[in-house]
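Hi support team,

I submitted a single chain yesterday and got back a structure, but I'm not sure I'm reading the C-alpha cell output correctly. Could someone confirm the output below corresponds to the sequence I sent? I've pasted both exactly as they appear in my results page.

Thanks,
R.
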Amino acid sequence: MAFVSPIQGHIDVALSNLALEYRNLALVSDILFSRVPVNAQSDKYWKFGKEAMQAAVDDIRAPAAAAQRIVQAISTDSYFCDDHSLERLIADEERANFEAGDVETWATRTLTDKLLLRKEKLLAAILADSSIVTQYTTLSGSTQWSDALNSAPLDDILTGIETVCKGVGCQISDLMLVLSLPVFNKLRVTNQVGEQLKYTSGKLATETDIAGMLGLGRVVLANAVEVSAAGVHSFVFGKHAWVLYVNPTPAFGEASFGKTFVWTGAPGSTQGFIVELGRATPTSRKADEIAVHFYYDHKVICVEAGYLIQNAIA
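Hi R., thanks for writing in. Yes, this is the structure output for that exact sequence:
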C-alpha cells in the first residue's frame, strides 16, 4: 500500500529537481528497466504479436493472384504508478543547530536515497520470481558456481543467451548479464572462467573479460546493499544471475524485458518527483515536515527477453 503523507505544505520545485537529479551510483534499476514517462497515473499500453518472426508463410505470388495476407496481433496491458513516498520532521531546534550544510537538502537526499533503494529492491524481487521470469534454471549442489571445480557457469549463461536470442531475435552483443557482487566473485574464480585467462592475463576475470568471453554487450554488477533493523548488511540482488535483453529507450513496438512507467504528469512533479515542505501539525511540534514522492510502476513487458539463473551460488 502506498504511503500517503499528511503534509499540507507547498511543493518545493528546487528540492524536487534535486530529488530528480540525485542518483546512488550502486543502483541499477534504471539500467535494467529504463524509465517510460507517462502523462496518466494509470493507463494501458500496447503489446505486439510476433508475426515479424514467423517465416513459415508461403510468400510466392502467382500472376494475377493476390499476395498472401497475414494478420497482426495486438493486445494491451496496464500500469498504475503508485505514489512511493517518505517523510521526516525537521525540528526547529535541529534547524537552528545544523551546521553541516543545508538541512533540507540533506533530508531530501536521504529520503530520495531510501525511495530509490526501495525501487531497486522491488525490481530485484520481480527478477528473482520464477513465476514472473518464466525462462529459468535452478542450480543446486555441484552445479552452483560456488563449486569452482565442477560447475559450468559459462554453459549456464550460454543457455540463457540462446534462450533470449531465440525469444526476441536479437544479437548476443545486444544482451547483458546481471550479477550481484557475491555471484560475480564466485563466477570469476571458477575453473571454467579461469581457464579462459590462464594463458593471457593471469589475473582474475573482470566484467569486461566475462562480457568478451561470451560476446555480450555488457556485464552489469547489481551491488545495491541494504541494512536490516538488526544491522545486518546484505546484497539486494542476492544469489541469482540474469541474461536480459534491454532496449534502453521506450521505442514504440520494440521488445525489452521490462520498463518502469513514471507518472511525469503528476501535478506539480518534476519528472515524477515531488518534494513537499510545510509546517507540521499540531503547531506544538515546532517542526517542519518534508516529504518526497516518486510515482512509478515496474512492469515486465516481454518475458521472452529474460532468463533467470536461480541460486547461481550457494
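A quick pointer for reading it: The mean pLDDT is 90. Let us know if anything else looks off.

Best,
Support desk
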